[in-house]
Design goal:
This protein is 29% helix and 20% strand. The chain has 296 residues and is an alpha/beta fold. It has two domains: 237 residues, Vaccinia Virus protein VP39 (Rossmann fold, 3-Layer(aba) Sandwich), CATH 3.40.50; 36 residues, no CATH class. The strands form two sheets. It has a nine-stranded mixed sheet, sandwiched between helices. The protein has a two-stranded antiparallel ribbon with strand order 7-8. Helix 2 packs parallel to helix 3. The mean pLDDT is 89. The structure holds S-adenosylmethionine. S-adenosylmethionine binds next to strand 11.
């Protein structure tokens, strides 16, 4: 059951930004009131000395009260989408299994509707020692995005996230073709010739994260506020908000940072709420919404 009301740090036409701890702020939201939780939580292991069960357990102990709140406030057809960067075990060219351990735990309270990969072609070659010096690993270019759901039938519609057809598909739609058997033995029927307005996207989202021009960045500099360095590109929340919600529904980012999610949600006519524990980041995020009554 939700607790009493709390005061947002600022509000906009459709959103409320809270300064505080995610577990506490989420406890004020009503049961089954949220359509989408979209977030990128801090990845504690980067700060840990070395990967081991203790570090993973500590992280899960810290994260779990927030997971329980997310479970409670999501609508039965709601989704919890989280981006979690992978990590390398310190001092060795081997990968931490922690994200998988966390996913297994999350799988006890959510379904894994689908896993996505954010392919960021502009990522630096890491871990540098193994990639560029020893040359025994290749460039790390994807992070996991897990789409978790409360039930087996979360609200979703891939027609809202169609991508432009490839050149060959456009040609095929224009010129037509003879139904035939493919080398894979799949028969390609005439329905393939229907123009659906775009192609169904894959679960690899290719989005470079190189924003040298970004209004948020300039406004923070102008105001003397710290720039959040772990911002995700707006294309990521944009994809999942359109795919998994309808206008007017509520989207929450409990680890909002610079509040990319809130800004995108506002643009897509969704209600939103954000939570961020660092007051400077909250102040910077307010600048995304102008200085008028919008972010009062
Ligand atoms: C990876 S960043 C999110 C960046 C965000 N996606 C963006 O585009 O700007 C994670 C954020 O979670 C915040 N955070 C850490 N612990 C928190 C907590 N208990 N409650 C709320 N926010 C927290 C951190 O200060 C950090 O800004």
């Amino acid at each position: 059951m939700a607790k009493s009301r709390i005061t947002p740090a600022y509000t906009t036409r459709l959103g409320r930004a809270f300064h505080g701890d995610a577990a506490d702020v989420l406890s004020h939201f009503a049961d089954e009131s949220v359509s989408l939780v979209f977030t990128s939580p801090p990845f504690a292991l980067r700060r840990q000395k070395a990967y081991g069960n203790v570090a993973a357990d500590e992280y899960i102990d810290w994260f779990w009260p927030i997971v329980e709140q997310i479970q409670r406030i999501l609508r039965p057809d709601g989704s919890f989408v989280m981006e979690l960067g992978g990590a390398w075990n310190r001092g060795s060219g081997t990968r931490s299994l922690f994200p998988y351990e966390l996913l297994i735990r999350l799988g006890k309270v959510f379904y894994l509707a689908q896993d996505f990969y954010w392919h960021n072609p502009s990522r630096l070659p890491t871990p540098a020692e193994w990639v560029t010096i020893r040359r025994t690993r290749v460039k790390e270019a994807v992070t996991h995005i897990w789409w978790l759901s409360k039930t087996t039938e979360p609200q979703a519609d891939n027609r809202r996230v169609l991508v432009p057809y490839s050149k060959s598909m456009k040609r095929l739609l224009k010129d037509g073709y003879e139904p035939a058997m493919r080398p894979s033995q799949h028969e390609i029927g005439p329905h393939f010739q229907r123009d659906n307005g775009g192609a169904i996207p894959p679960n690899v989202l290719t989005v470079p994260n190189t924003r040298s021009y970004d209004e948020y960045l300039f406004k923070c500099r102008e105001a003397g506020l710290p720039i959040h360095h772990a911002r995700f590109p707006p294309e990521l929340p944009d994809f999942f908000i359109r795919f998994l919600t309808s206008p007017g529904q509520l989207v929450i980012d409990p680890f909002a940072g610079s509040n990319t999610t809130g800004q995108v949600a506002e643009g897509l006519e969704r209600k939103w709420a954000s939570v961020e524990i660092n007051a400077d980041y909250v102040a910077g995020s307010r600048l995304r919404f102008g200085t008028s009554k919008e972010a009062a």
